[in-house]
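agent: user wants the full assembly modeled, not chains individually. Plan: 1) parse entity lines 2) check alphabet per entity 3) run joint structure prediction 4) return tokens. Steps 1-2 passed, two entities, 726 residues total. Proceeding.
--- entities ---
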Amino acid sequence: MHHVVSSAHILAQESDSWINTDTFIDLFWANTIGGLEYGSIYALIALGYTLVYGVLKLLNFAHSEVFIYGAYATWFTFFLLGFRPGPTPELATGELIAFLLLAVVVAMLVSGTTALVLERVAYRPLRNRGAPRLAFLITAIGASLVLQQILFLWRGGNAEQAIRLLRPETLFTVGSASIQNLTIIIVVASILMWLVADTFVNRTRFGRGIRAVAQDPETATLMGVNKERIIMLTFVVGGLLAGAAALFYMMKIPQGAQYNGGFLLGIKAFAAAVLGGIGNLRGALLGGLLLGVIENHGQALFGGEWRDVVAFVLLVLVLMFRPTGILGESLGKARV
Amino acid sequence: MTTTKTPSTAKPPTAPWRTSISERWNNLSRFQQWVILIPVVVLIFALPWLNPPILTTEPGYDFSIAMFDVARYCLIAIGLNVVVGQAGLLDLGYVGFFAIGAYVAALFTSPDSTLWKIPYLAAVPLAMAITMVFGIILGSPTLRLRGDYLAIVTLGFGEMVRLFADNVDALRGNRGFSNIGAPPGTRENGEPLFVNFDGKPWYVLCVAVIIIVLILAGNLERSRVGRAWVAIRDDEDAAELMGVPTFKFKIWAFVIGAAIGGLSGALYAGQQGFMNNQKFDVLTSVLFLAAVILGGSGNKVGVLLGAFVVAYVPLRFLSIAEWKFMIFGVALTILMIFRPQGLLGARQRLLAYGRQAYQRLVGRGEMVSSDTAMSAEKGGLMNGGSGAPK
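--- prediction returned ---
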């Protein structure tokens, strides 16, 4: 993620003052739109954190690896379809849509499977043994390390070379912002994915199970909810969303498939989840979008090298002043 | 907080041989314990000169420097153990404190820095003081909240320290600081005693520091503070109800841990003689954590053992060095399932002067043991009824 330098940064670089208000004002709309783009990716990853946290009260550190497995899956799908690093190929719209859909399905399956395996292999034995909280956190860290090292030992430390299917093109401009085809696809598709997830949790039978277990696991079990199955389902849903986020991320940053590339995104997505209110699906969306926008403006104000610090400072500020987040923590709260 | 499952499910059986060793050890008088300890300590001090054939890391890696690395990890593990093992707080950004300690030592002793210079031995306590301040800054917003938030905030903190090292001009990024100071002293031939290519004096210094820190940490552990930590670790709500000011003691644990991290960082900077932004990634933090958890968090002998394994094995067997993160990651995961208390579990002595009292009462050494941080049952993760979220 540190390698990502947006156009805003290049413009912001040449300035003597510590805070760059001129850039901030000049590029306000560009940064806001660009922030929404990143933000919707954060939001999708944050959903995974939020769901697992809501149900298990577990901070799933390995979720960042679940996401990066999706990014690798995307890259390999492109590669196996015959695309190679280099110039963007000319594709018919139908073909392009088919390839992207295939990639998103593969990425979602890979991430979902990773999340499922993680739950079965690492967390479930701990639950069966009634392990303490600290043990779960340490397992999460250990599992995250293992998943990361598998990629490292297999593919090495360097990022996979960029494969781009869709050339970013400016469709129209709003103020200083140029709206690209990529922007629209990422933001719209992410919000659609979020809507599906929200409907799933709030309107379906399985979703009711998830909310029931989040609210009170014991009572839910007594009422005939299969707790273990709900937990599995929660991990899988989180994984699927992370896989979708991975495709959008790879469209935005094609050189993003790196073994430790999930780490910073994971922290940011978690910060987004806390910002919106962890355990709360709407909070994840709001927090993700807000974080993306704030981060971009922070970059314009303080310079690109401080981009990653913004999310962290924001996280600490939220924890200091409003630890329940903007919308509060409410996955368990029954809604009609 | 009612628990339907009995804690005994989480508490694994103690190995009989270990019970007998620790029991026998506790049955000895203080004098007898010292009689055994002193030769062991002398032997440990002499290790780099002995350079025992099987233990040696040569020709791949200079043995005296390897031993210094091991000692450094031991010191780090003791510091992190105060936070993780004794107070039960998960600190994933320990490398941040280590880095701050190293940078303070570099900033105040290296000719590359524009700050005024002070002797190395004065820079070390300064490094500790500054890391303590950072510990307070980081701990005060997060320690009031759930433990998981501390984990992610410290994880982020470790990364932020690295980013600052990369991007703040005064910290010189990749160029780094050279000729970092060292303690005074000369050899017979007039050359300085503490040089970066000879690990022996640094090793001796580090082991001496470890012994001092062990004694201080041991005293702390047996004091009111230590008992408060155990109470917080085992059940924070109950501790709070009993009138333990949990926030205050958590801050203390965090800050003391930070200070020891800063101390080891300053020692490391001195030994290396050169410091740049390349050595402080998050993986190192996880390695530090692995050292504490593998050996047995909460148990001083255990964490020393864990630190030895984590630091020594990759240096001794260079062929598996590339695999070390994988190996320790797998080890952490498996250990949490099958032996959550680590290789040697915690043995918290609850009574400050309990030894004699217990001996008079039962006629043998005290075996007052508390559950370890790992086997204490805490709610929230669906282990039977406890901690249902609102």
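agent: reporting back. Chain B has one domain: 22-50+59-183+194-362. Chain B is about 60% helix and 0% strand.
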